[in-house]
Amino acid sequence: MKSLLFSRFLLLLPWVLIVIIVLDIDSSRAPLPALSPRGGAEGGSGGARPPAPRRRPEAGLPTIYAITPTYSRPVQKAELTRLANTFRQVSRLHWILVEDAAARSELVTRFVAGAGLPCTHLHVPTPRRYKRPGLPRATEQRNAGLAWLRQRHQHLPPPQPGVLFFADDDNTYSLELFQEMRTTRKVSVWPVGLVGGRRYERPVVENGKVVGWYTGWRADRPFAIDMAGFAVSLQVILSHPKAVFKRRGSQPGMQESDFLKQITTVEELEPKANNCTKVLVWHTRTEKVNLANEPKYHLDTVNIEV
Ligand code: UGA
Ligand code: MN
Fold first, then answer.
1. Of 176, 256, 270, 305, which is the active-site residue?
2. Which of 131, 145, 204, 241 has the maximum number of C-beta atoms within 10 A of its C-beta?
3. Which residues, 6+ apart, have CB-to-CB distance to 187 below 8 Å?
4. pLDDT per residue over 271-298, tens digit each?
5. Separation between Cα atoms, residue 89 and residue 68, nearest integer Å
6. Strand positions, DSSP E, the chain
7. H helices within the chain, ranges in order?
């Protein structure tokens, strides 16, 4: 009886094996579903055919260049971390970080290396005479970012689809803001929350055109808008090579107007964020950190970067 069973088993075994092999070949031919839009399956080994080039949805998008002035203080790394966590989620964003310093710092250099997004790391110190309360901040740093952008693009033929905006390191940016600014043709504008002594400031829009400004502070400004409230197309930056932020004659709060005056008019502005009725960026400010209990000299045995 036992030997009968055994011979039947031997007889069936090759057939079972054949069925298993055929099933296995079949399933390895079936296309694998993509795991994520950015794909981890590309370049896999063992396939008979090379993987078909996958069209990345962001391939045709204009690059967004974000110029961020930044300076050394206890909260710097925390601010940059917050910003990188936002920017990393935006397709085709190129971060231009400009340190207010005589040299690149180790902290920012290390940070940029691990930021996980395309970064250009520049530095320029603010002259001592301009480091006073009441004077505009980050003028030299934004200009260094503009100069880098112009130099990089001046020899390339148009069209060079791109959008520039000024992203201070302490503000809060929604992801929707980047979708809005991406379609900037010349200069686009939108509301900014928590600024100008009000819950928000915004361009007032009628029939799709900016006709005035809702603001609580210096309504006489030609462009009563915060640095976080506008974007400029790369073409406009390149076709106005002399447009920069000026130290001479610039009053507090006038930097935005002084700059925008050089490249556009109020009538030309493109309102974003549902005709400027949505707040997608907030002029948050981080309070100065309390280090009252910090010892004068390092007492800890390890030196920790904060
Ligand atoms: C407001 C505006 O939102 C800024 O765009 C404008 O530059 C600034 O006023 C001004 O007075 O010039 P506020 O929150 O008062 O912003 O300024 P900060 O956030 O302290 O500084 C703006 C940017 O400049 C930040 O990215 C900051 O890191 C940088 N900064 C500030 C420097 O690079 N160096 C400094 O000494 C101070
Ligand atoms: Mn700020």
1. 256
2. 145
3. 230, 231, 232, 233, 236, 260, 263, 264, 268, 269, 270
4. 999 999 999 999 999 999 999 999 988 8
5. 17
6. 63-70, 93-99, 119-123, 162-166, 172-173, 187-189, 192-195, 198-206, 209-214, 230-233, 270-271, 281-282
7. 2-29, 76-87, 106-113, 139-153, 175-182, 234-239, 255-261, 273-276
pLDDT in tens, 189-223: 999 999 999 999 999 999 999 999 999 999 999 99
- Write the pLDDT tens digit of every residue in 49-99: 555 656 666 778 999 999 999 999 999 999 999 999 999 999 999 999 999
CA-to-CA dists, residue 86 to 77, 106, 117, 225, 229, angstroms: 14, 23, 11, 23, 17
Q: Of the residues 76, 107, 137, 281, which should be mutated to test ligand 1's pocket, given the most ligand atoms within 8 Å of the CB?
A: 137
Residue with tokens 């990345």: 56
Q: Which ligand sits nearest to residue 252's alpha carbon?
A: 1
Block residue for tokens 């079949």: 26
Report the DSSP pairing between strands 270-271 and 187-189: parallel
